[in-house]
Please model this.
Amino acid sequence: MRIIAGTARSLPLKTIEGMDTRPTTDRIKETLFNMLQNDVPGCYFLDLFAGSGQIGLEAVSRGARYAVFVENNKKACACIEDNIHFTKFDRETKLLQSDVISAIRSMEGKYRFDVIFMDPPYRHEYEKEVLECLKDSSILKEDTLIVVEASLDTSFDYLNELGFTLKKLKTYKTNVHAFITKAE
Model:
């Protein structure tokens, strides 16, 4: 696992051992950032269920102004800290060791994000819980882009009732990226 492009290009990143996280493959990460290429430069980026932090670090490497990582797992947080220090992105990042809902509530009135990425554990409907929390949150701007990495069988049929729109669904062999915005 490595940073693919930008100022930290080719730097290897640590990941935690075991099955607690499933790092996004370089190929899928590259496809994702190709789709985000116009959204990332200068943005405030939120990486929820951050794992190793590779998605937020990739965003900073590609020109995001600031990234906040939210992760509850202690080992994963240590891994994210190591990766932040190794990439020398200490000033452009913040790590919150917390569950995602508590972290979102703690950021109310302090941050407003342009891009929110979440890769929750599959098949637990955590993405729906997070979107319910985000629907009235001040951390969203009118045009915030929310990207959810999910299993192939994840349904997003509830988005309209929460005030969101599915802009795009990118399907891979093993998972999907759902691109979501506030309904207009």
Notes: The two ends are 38 Å apart (CA to CA).
